[in-house]
Amino acid sequence: MRSPALRHVLTHLVTPLLMCIGMGLAYMGAFVTPEPHHLPVAVVGAGPEAKVFAQTVKDKAGEALDVRTVATRAEGVDLLKSREITGAYVPSAKTPELVIASAGSDMDALAVEKVFTPVAAGQGVPLKVTDVAPPVADDPTGQGLFFLLIALSIGSYASVAALGAAGAGLPLRVRALLAVGVSAVVSGIGALLAGPVFHLAHHGLAGLWGMAWLYSAGILLIGVGLHTFLKRWTTLAMMVLFVMLNFTSSGGLYRPELQNGFFGTLHAFWNGAGFVEGARSLLYFGSDGLARNVWTLVVWLLLGLAVTAVAAAYERGKAPEEAAPAAHEADAEEEVEETVGV
Prior knowledge:
Layout (H helix, E strand, L loop, with lengths): L3 H28 L7 E6 L3 H14 L3 E6 L2 H9 L5 E4 L6 E4 L5 H17 L5 E4 L12 H23 L5 H26 L7 H26 L3 H11 L1 H4 L11 H7 L3 H14 L5 H52 L1
Parallel strand pairs: 1-2, 1-3, 4-5
Antiparallel strand pairs: 3-4
């Protein structure tokens, strides 16, 4: 290509075009066709009639449902609050009931309703739906935590770009300290949004801030470390890690039971899922399962520290190599000056 300026522009267009492809594949692959896959539900009843009914539901649903029986309604509620199931159906000739916990996932609750509403209709009776863990009135769909995740993510990976561009001349330890400070600011903004501004968190705001800091600091430290190696490709890498794969596997819109196996697998250990599920545990489910999600965020933070440490070692090793040519040029200039002086 004859024009260096045109080649330079075309080269820089590669990144946004790859983002376009990646975002399309990730979001449409994760969200366009949600279908139940082994959605865990329970049928309440201890006798053989309940077991036969549960097996009938399972046979009709196929791989869409995993059906178990529980002896009592209270046992079903306990499983719902520990998020081991998404719905508990209580058969009755007059008033069949479906017990759900929509704060765990509004979409899962809707999917379970779609399964059992026709079952009750087949008996000629309406289905009673009881929600034992609804989200707060300020967040009726329970998706506010997902949008909080988006805000925290954008604040974090966009700050990586700023630190890489404006702070390239700073020592890595300074950039790392700046990353830690920025993560405190980003998480503080998140806490303000979740608390006083939109009232997503009616309690546990300090704990939510702590998880937001772990989440943001992990992203920032990973980004600062990667920038040493990837340079201008860092933004694309951060988009892949913390947007394309992160938002889609977080469970904020659809939990893994409504997604394909790829995103469902990522949900088990990705940092966005750790934050969303940890926030749900803290705010709606009595901190059940909170420790596991916090450890997920801690592991990502440790990964960020490790990447930063590797980058620091690389930059220290590279510094003498860059200093040697400069010293050689200075010696050459001094020699020329001495020669001219003679």
